[in-house]
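Re-run requested by the PI after the first attempt was lost when the workstation crashed. Everything re-entered from the original request form. Ligand of interest: pyridoxal-5'-phosphate.
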Amino acid sequence: MSQEEQKSTVDLYSQYVAPTYGRFNIFPQRGEGVFLWDENGSRFLDFSGGVAVNSLGHSHPDLVKVICNQAAELVHCSNLYQHRGQAELARLLTEEVVGINGKCFFCNSGTEANEGLIKLARKFGEVSPSSIGEPRHEILSFNGSFHGRTTGGMAATGQEKIRSGFGPLMEGFKYLPFNDVTELINGVSDKTVAILMEPVQGEGGINVASSEFLSAVQEICQKRNILLFFDEVQCGIGRCGDLCGWRVIPNAQEIKPDAISWAKGLGGGFPIGAIWIRDKSINDLSLCDLLGPGTHGSTFGGAPLASSVASTVVRKIIDENICDNVINLGELINRELQSRPIPFITELRGLGLMLGFQVNSKAINEIRDFQKTNKTPALFLVELLADSGLLTVPAGSDVIRWLPPLIVKENEIMEALEIMRTVFERINT
Ligand SMILES: Cc1ncc(COP(=O)(O)O)c(C=O)c1O
């Protein structure tokens, strides 16, 4: 064995991988359904779901099959050509996911999808200028939002900690308080061209847009000719119990966004990002044709392999009524927590299987073992859960996120709740 092979994974990371993440000492090797096994053969119940990616669980046989079959036929061809798989996926997303006429553009990640939305807004601002004839370019987003790590995605993100140190940032973004109708009305200006929002904020701690706020956003967009963009990168494609996350919010079924971004769960683990743009007429053009030839592109976007995997994921979610499972199990978790509260958890927020357990930070601060660390309360608890075989994800400093595969079963949910209860009861004594 060479010297390199003898090094532990952690040593290889520290020597060769840029330290952009605070990584856990967890070394996954193999997965099946909701379970992951590490290099030593220890089993984890994976409720991190690759951070809302593994919609069908790990190594789903249908996903494995489509990857193998499509790879054997055609992995990649240029976007200069027309591959049926990409066109079929665009049809599926338009007709069966959104159900509103429009067109799709494909890329490879969530942040790239949002870059597409930002470019769409800029183009729209040009053809639909302000009252003094200048291109409109201002995009409103919300405090606590997360839209990605590229320069545009970062500039759109309403969290100072994400943007800090990378100035000067791309101009033209304004951040408003989430779920605050008055601030929204006061925040719109003659320059505003689009509103970009996560119907359910993920990284910001699982905050669901209120019905009142969503209708106010739609109303102001219609009144002021502003585009309404939903970032459904985390909350879309079934995660909240509907293929469109916002439709799970009460009274929001009729809300019609002008464009949507997706990634994460769309590929079930295979990288793909996409945007859908509404067929809405502006002057003598349609919004969905505004990004014309030469204006935008992606070498890998919507390549045959990614497209057939994503079509398989979406088809399965639709054909097997997986959204019903998501809704039922989300309700089960809520019921269980109400009937048997878990120490340190003060609230459960979210929709379907996009859930945030609010941690009582004050109570955690009193624990001696916690005082010895410099971790956030959420990170401290997430690590303890991982030590007991349950993988979850922190969101902000005091929220624990559950994002299990959408195919998770009731007994697996009960096992996860039991682990959480046992671990938190132990440190509560
Ligand atoms: C709502 C939202 N938008 C965009 C992104 C960025 O996606 P990606 O990491 O695929 O670029 C994320 C990632 O967490 C997200 O949650």
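Saved to the shared folder this time. The mean pLDDT is 97.
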